[in-house]
Every structure is written in C-alpha cells, then in structure tokens.
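Justification of resources, computational component.

The compute hours requested in this renewal are based largely on the per-chain cost of generating structure records like the one below. Each record pairs the submitted sequence with a full structure-token output. That output is archived, and it is also reused by downstream analysis tasks.
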Amino acid sequence: MERPPLRRADHDLLGILASLTGFIHTATEFYWIRFLLGAAEAGFFSGMIVYMSHWFPSEDRAKAVALFMTAIPVST
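The structure output for this chain reads:
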C-alpha cells in the first residue's frame, strides 16, 4: 500500500500560527490570527481521513478512523 508524503510546510504553518496567538495584544489581532488559524486547519480533518484511507487496509480502516474521532472529545 502506497503512503502519500506528509507535507511538513502544512504542519509548520499551523505551528507558527498557533505560536502567534501568544503575542496577541488587541481584539483585531485576535480575530485575524484565529481566522488564519481556522483557514489553515480547515482541511486537516478531511485530509487525515484521506491519509488513513491510504495507510490502513480496508479491514483496519474503521478502527483507525474511530480512534482518530475518539481523540476529539478526549482533547477538550
């Protein structure tokens, strides 16, 4: 099974934008950073599902997606 390459630039962008939230001083800066962070994160969930469809065989894919979806309520 062929695994697609992970793009390091996508992860770096998310890290940089998340780090910038520590330097916010005004409400306008907050709204801009949150907008940019949301735009950068928009494709993360669907992208992870696509990656899992390439990484896991069909008999293990449901378990992998279920484990990934379980992480959402656990993280909050």
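Residues 58-75 form the longest helix (18 residues). The mean pLDDT is 84.
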